[in-house]
Sequence to fold (461 residues):
Amino acid sequence: MGAIITLSLLGILVLYLGLYKAKSLLLPVTLLGLVAALGFEIASWNKGENPIYNGMVLFDNFALAFSILCIVITGLILLLSKEYFRAISNNVAEYYCLILFSLTGALMVCSYHNFAMLFIGIEVMSVALYILVGIRKTDFASNEAALKYFLMGAFSTGFLLFGITLLYGATGTFDITGVKNYLISNPAAVSPLFYGGILLLLVGLLFKVGAAPFHFWTPDVYDGAPILITTYMSTVVKVASFAGFMKLFSYVFSPLQDFWTPILLIIIVITLFIGNITALLQTSFKRMLAYSSISHAGYMLFAIIALGANADSSILTYGLAYSLASVAAFAGLILVKRSNGSDQFVAFDGLGKSNPLLALVITVAMLSLAGIPLTAGFIGKFMLFRGAMADYHIILLVLAVVNAAIGIYYYLRVVVHMYFYPSIKGDDTVAVPTSFNIVLVVTLLLTILIGVYPDCIISLL
Fold:
């Protein structure tokens, strides 16, 4: 709980620093606050065995692991923020404040033990993002993205609340342990309201993670939002949403797995094909990453249908690998777009010659997203596919491998442009600030380290 309180107070402090024009302190204070929140989470490891605050939250190792991942990825994103925010706005305190409040909501989603806390966490996480997506008031694409995100978010929240209402009507409790006990004590007499509640909750959560057929908001919102906000949405928000998704279906609804597994199987297949095929057709690097994020939601759903002893570590490892690669890819996009004024694939032409380090980091990120061996993405996919094989979802596994092959093709397109096409501007070098270099090197090393020595993360989990 110390991390949630720290981040809440930190958001208010950052807002006051902006009010008194202390811009130079915004980033250092924010990063120090994140380190303090991270310290609270690490200090709580192996201590949160029981729910606290009348059963509202549970800080077990599952919640702490996902919370630590969210905090670390947010720190990497904020290291990119100084140069980026300064270039697009004079009022940067609001960015930091809203990101911190959104991160607070993400931690609530990771640690909820009551449906009320799940709803509050999702809303705190999402409302701040509605503002951040449309914060460039003079940009039509940003305004359109904010409106779409708000409308789709409102619809998904309606489904979520309706589902929670039906579950309460069937069980008489918002506590997830109470809901689970209802299923265990009434295996043959489950209320029809309960089944309806599961379906509506499934719809609401699939909206949040951007899975098909509830993905329509994702490409336009990711494309219209500022790149750094897109990075945050596609990593921290997605990881936290899947943590909440995983806890609900593995802990509460597992006795009814035969009911909801066929539905999720169909959704996974649709999500993989829509995400990969549409990404294949894109000429914009940013839009390609937006569509590919839909396919990665499909891969992460593997862990939910293949519930087992390794499901939690599988989805966490995949979330870590995906987040590191996405941060590196979007950081590269920020630098290239600043240099060439475009996010098309042709803007990356000749980057391998003009900036070898940046090209190397983007290449490793693309290989990791594609699931090539010796990268963290391969380990994540391997763990998810192994879980599916253990439950004999062979047809699903074959379809996933086909989609992975499609992903390799469009991810390697940018690599081809960097190394096999001459630069359209000659040998101009892309300027890389120090903070970007730190993030690029950290993501590169972690991606390779986890890919070569996966036990360093798996044994911890």
Notes: The radius of gyration is 21 Å.
